[in-house]
Write a structure and sequence with these properties.
- Helix content is 51%, strand content 8%.
- By secondary structure, the protein is an alpha+beta fold.
- It has a four-stranded antiparallel β-sheet with strand order 2-3-4-7.
- Helix 6 packs antiparallel against helix 8.
- The protein is elongated.
- The N terminus and C terminus are likely disordered.
- Keywords: Membrane, Transmembrane, Transmembrane helix.
Length: 352
């Protein structure tokens, strides 16, 4: 038996910097001058190739689970689909975290030498060339042999030009990166569900903290599935993950709402002592498998349901203390968790 949720989930529309109001406008204000500088078609000069789809002008949003890369539009309109979604491992090493920060660094400015944008160098290379010319030239003036100084003067700019690309390739091995448009659109609903779970987490309830951890595991698994060929087994697994993720997010919202109601009742009565709260212990973290077991997510969802029931019972008990003649209205108890299964974005007929 399932009942309609007390707080239905909103439409899955992914927006940049939802947890930081005003951040997107500030980022656009910093990026717009560079985009406008690259839009004019004059002679050779210093400009940045921005709005041609090469991700040179972009805005990166770092998250606890990875990052989102948004295009910087010429107008103030907020983009709907990101250029890139990357998910780090649920148990990232220090190297993986450093790789994530390296891959989300600001791209260097490109210095073009012709009006058709065919010949260019990056500002990093130009700075390295100037530094090598100055420092190595000074060393040669103080006695450094030309046989050593001249190769070194050429080697430093070459390393500055090619080394970042090699580091990018190594760093990308620490994350699961989705770039194709189909995968990005399918990933939006999962990211929105995880954002809802993160917003519901109050950093006090162990069941909510466990839901956030499991959500990160699910995003990691889904990112791995979306980078595989679109086989029928992959589509079935994506549908299962979407149902589990929606159930988890819906139950997290209900648990947070029930806890807030309980806290309001405690504040109103002036004392929360003697209130019986029965919640199941948080589900223990499992070692990272190839795919997260469905039973683990269902167990965490059930734990959230039990916590919500306990918080609602505590709120009803406090209400009864405020009004001695009032008795709580009986509610039907059933095996359902109070969250409907979300309609799948992948029609079952697509597998045939």
């Amino acid at each position: 038996m399932t009942t309609a949720p007390h707080h239905p989930l909103p439409d899955p529309e992914l927006r940049p910097f939802t947890s930081e109001p005003g951040r997107w406008q500030r980022e656009l204000q910093q990026t717009q001058p560079r985009i406008k500088a690259s839009a004019f078609d004059g002679g050779p000069g210093y400009r940045q190739e921005g709005h041609r789809g090469e991700e040179l002008t972009r805005i990166d949003e770092r998250t606890d689970w990875g990052w989102l890369r948004w295009p910087a539009p010429l107008s103030e309109e907020t983009p709907v689909v990101p250029l890139q979604v990357a998910v780090l491992s649920p148990t990232p090493s220090r190297t993986a975290r450093l790789a994530g920060r390296w891959l989300t660094r600001r791209p260097p400015l490109r210095i073009y030498f012709d009006a058709r944008y065919r010949f260019w160098i990056t500002s990093t290379t130009a700075l390295a060339a100037f530094a090598s010319l100055t420092l190595v030239g000074a060393a040669m003036a103080n006695g450094l042999l030309p046989d050593i100084g001249l190769p070194l003067m050429l080697l430093i700019p070459a390393l500055a030009e090619h080394l970042p690309g090699r580091l990018d390739a190594r760093a990308q091995g620490h994350a699961r990166i989705i770039r194709h448009e189909t995968g990005l659109r399918e990933m939006q609903a999962f990211i929105v569900c995880h954002q809802i779970i993160q917003a519901a987490d109050d950093h006090e309830t162990p069941e909510l903290a466990q839901a956030v951890e499991l959500g990160h595991h699910l995003l990691w698994d889904i990112a791995g599935l979306l980078t595989q060929p679109a086989a029928s087994s992959v589509r079935v697994r994506l549908r299962t993950c979407q149902d589990l993720f929606t159930q988890l997010a819906c139950q997290a919202v209900e648990t947070r709402a029930a806890k807030q109601e309980r806290d309001r009742r405690i504040t109103r009565t002036g004392s929360g002592e003697g209130t019986a709260e029965t919640t199941e212990p948080a589900v223990q973290s499992a070692p990272e498998p190839e795919l997260l077991p469905d039973a683990l997510i269902e167990e965490a969802t059930h734990a959230l349901h039990q916590a919500a029931v306990a918080y609602r019972a505590a709120a009803a008990h406090l209400q009864q203390l405020d009004h001695p003649g009032w008795s709580p209205r009986p509610t039907a108890a059933g095996p359902g968790l109070g969250c409907p299964t979300a309609p799948s974005a992948h029609p079952r007929g697509a597998d045939q």
